[in-house]
Specification:
Layout (H helix, E strand, L loop, with lengths): L2 H4 L3 H20 L2 H11 L4 H25 L3 H19 L5 H32 L6 H25 L3 H20 L6 H4 L12 H31 L3 H4 L2 H19 L5 H21 L3 H30 L3 H25 L6 H22 L11
Helix pairs in contact: 2-5, 2-6, 2-7, 2-8, 3-4, 3-7, 3-8, 3-10, 4-6, 4-15, 5-6, 5-8, 6-15, 7-8, 7-12, 7-14, 10-13, 10-14, 10-15, 10-16, 12-14, 13-14, 13-16, 14-15, 15-16
Amino acid sequence: MTGKKLEPSAAAAALIGLVALASAMGIGRFSLTPILPLMQQDAGLTLTAGGWLATGNYVGYLIGALICIMLTPAPAFAIRWGLLSVGLFTLAMGLCGSETVWLALRFLAGVASAFVLVGTSAWAMPILARHGREEWSGHVFSGVGIGIAFAGLFGLAAGLDAWGSRATWIALGVVALLLAGLLWRKLGADVAALSRPAAEQRPALPRPALVAAACYATFGFGYIIPATFLPALARGYIDDPAMFGLIWPVFGVAAAASTVVSAWLFRGLAPRQLWVRAKWVLAAGVLAPGLWLNLSTLLISAVCVGGTFVVITMAGIKEALRLGGAPASLAVGVMTAAFGAGQIAGPLTVSLFGRSDHAFAWASVIAAASLVAGNIALLFLGRGSDGEVKA
């Protein structure tokens, strides 16, 4: 039986990738963000403790990416077991009340999420390319925003109906397990892995790809502060749960729509060009609530950060695959690890300034500065394989 016979259609690959990323990223990675205000209310969790839980998840994400680099797991295997693990670890969050156990569970969910992102990128994007549907990668990555919006609406409903944080974790865990079961057989065989070169023949990543990975790390650090703390910040500023609870769904809707809108408006741009331009908007969204905290700047941040971070993720992975000259799992794994290393510093920065009344503001300024520095590096150091600056 040939790999071609085993390969799903482009539409099936895009839909499977969308659902996988919606679960892994919306639930496995970012579910803490909308549930954090509930945990502050019914579990007495402090913002600093929430920062440590977020950091644990990001450390796990980094470790998961590093494991993918070292072992290059078969893509379908990584997706299946990653999704199952996301469901189990999310469900367990609602079954215990220890901050230490929560930290361990968020760490493990981060590991699993990295497996799903690397596996999905290495599984779906080559299939789309072989079908001549590379532009459909935007549909795959819209799953990140769809998952975030879903988790945000879940958190909003939980806040309005007073479900409590434990019930919310359990419900999201059940959803993640159902999605894992739904996709288990639909992933089929590891078609993308059939043409992988042997480990001893695997080429190293060239210098441009490593420079791009370093710049991708500044993206991870820059966006993660609002991506972690916006709902909690809104809760401290706005009393009405129907209003502060909308911040994260707005973030998710912007993220879901961004890949489709960018594919339509900027289809002539190279991935690196799209990356650079989106990063300027991201920097503005990160800085806005740090300088002036009100409902308008919170919404601006949700739209600017939510509307660019998935686009940058997609563009960065496309650029890694273009520059990599290596198996997809390795190229995506290096970028994911760089991103993971950068985002670990975000919550730690907020915790560092935790005793200051301006902790979020200081962290936001530093994050925005890192994004500007990363863009400058992309403009002046990041030359593509054709030798041209991709501005």
